[in-house]
């Protein structure tokens, strides 16, 4: 095997390793390692096919071939990331840009060491097994550092949310970087001054830094948009408490009036109003007589409102609540906390195929100096667990819990899902 062919194969292996580094922090598809290893073969085959062509062409043809090589590797790396992880096409292309740049950095770092050894009279035999082994080991160490310091930090909550502007700017930076890499290959072959090579290397370092800052800026922008939407939802729910309180008062008043009218009907003669009609009216009155008495007016409003919602959707809501221990939480926060928690539970119960499992259990009590809130609901199907409404509900809950120095624990218990909230008891 010639040194140039070995060089090409090692560069293909470096690109595969760089793509693998950016795949690891993401959600993997089934048979992840089989897919990843399978993509190694077309990368090695492409390097092996193009190596003889590169040796038999003129300089400008080599540059054209180098462009084709970069585009082909980019397409293969993007395809590898897309096939191996749960990511969209824009995110896969963005990771492919990073993979090409990181792999090129690893290759140029090794070439720099090789030149240093040659300059001091100790040229390395690149075809020797020891040199290949050292290259592979140093590449593994380099990629481990990239994974820890970079690849795990780039995704936002395990995902890439790449828009057209970010993808276009990443392409532009990547093209400039690879053009400098091609120029650097020519300079190295023609023995250009070290000052010129150092300038190009510094320029490449700036391009990588710029790409990283670009990623952080877009990530920060996405976080701000999400935070603004969350704040808007949070404030609307705080304001909704007064409306819900008035609605519950109206319902209770109408329910009481209806029961008084039914009692008056019972005093009439049985011939005037059939008994079954009176029983039907009593059942209707009990449906709207959902008033709760927990010792906390806000919790009473939430439970009354959600009891009616559960009744309309065929869900059984069991609540054992000591609301008197929740007085340290502001009314708006308390309403938002339980409204979101119960909405999340109701939505989970609705999506359950078995009617007998449509049960929600709520417990609010004091244990060992802590306020404990426990909500158990059916477990959602896997494809419904990460929808946007569920994410926002849990984020609002988590924000309120953190505001009052509590802890939130989410657990799966067989076919059920438990939200456990613990607050330090405040008097």
From TrEMBL:
Pfam family for this entry, one: HATPase_c_5
Membrane-spanning segments: 32-50, 62-84, 91-110, 130-150, 162-183, 195-213
The keyword Coiled coil appears for this protein: yes
Residues in coiled coil: 220-254
Record keywords, A-Z: Coiled coil, Membrane, Transmembrane, Transmembrane helix
Domain Sensor histidine kinase NatK-like C-terminal: 330-424
Protein name (Swiss-Prot/TrEMBL): GHKL domain-containing protein
Taxonomic lineage: Bacteria, Bacillati, Bacillota, Clostridia, Eubacteriales
